[in-house]
Amino acid sequence: MEFRAVLLGIILASSIAGALAGDPSPVQDFCVADVNSSLFVNGLACKNPKLATAMDFFFSGLDKAGDTGNRVGSNVTLVNAARIPGLNTLGISLARIDYAAGGLNPPHTHPRATEILTVVEGSLLVGFVTSNPENRLFLKSLNRGDVFVFPVGLVHFQFNYGKTPVVAIAALSSQNPGVITVANAVFGSKPGIDDGVLAKAFQVDQGVIEDLKAQFK
Questions:
Q1: pLDDT digits (tens, 9 = 90+) for 29-70
Q2: How far apart (Å, rounded) are the C-alpha atoms in residues 71 and 212?
Q3: Taking Cα atoms as reference points, which of 82, 76, 87 lies closest to residue 170?
Q4: What is the pLDDT of residue 6?
Q5: Residues annotated in the binding site, as ranges?
Q6: Known binding-site positions for Mn(2+)
Q7: Phi, psi for 54 (deg, rounded to 5)
Q8: Binding annotation for oxalate
């Protein structure tokens, strides 16, 4: 009887966890974020819906190219609940991604969102890698109008292999998808991960790790 009760509890907990996966579902028409609130909640606090206006659901500027004059040659303009307060609790966000010729959106993950990307102008090489132990690479060349999906949490990238700029639009299944750029996290963490740990993990000399860390200071 005790075992059955424990088993029932595990099944119930698993069901609840599955139901709560992803952003919580709204329980009202909208919950416009109160950007001035000091209340700390999972998401953003709501303001009085009677004070909401059309501007709370509006953003202007995705027609403007982002600055790609950086080391990787790409720029992400993210439109999330911090920029459109009306997105709060709706479980979605949007991004414009600009790539210079040879530009890269380096390997990264979104811990809280699946991403669906479409190429607006130009061509991209995109890919994602599955989890251990297979670490299988899914790779595809995309042209204007093509669409590709990056499953939630998996490492992925986009590379402009051409000689002209590329523009893409991505939708993400969270109001705050988060981003972890692999190289920045590993070699640019604060405080830094011990050189010996990284040298063993990557099977290289510590001098290589020191050089890599210097690039991410």
A1: 899 998 888 887 777 899 999 999 999 999 999 999 999 999
A2: 14
A3: 76
A4: 41
A5: 105, 108, 110, 115, 156
A6: 108, 110, 115, 156
A7: -60, -30
A8: 105, 110, 115
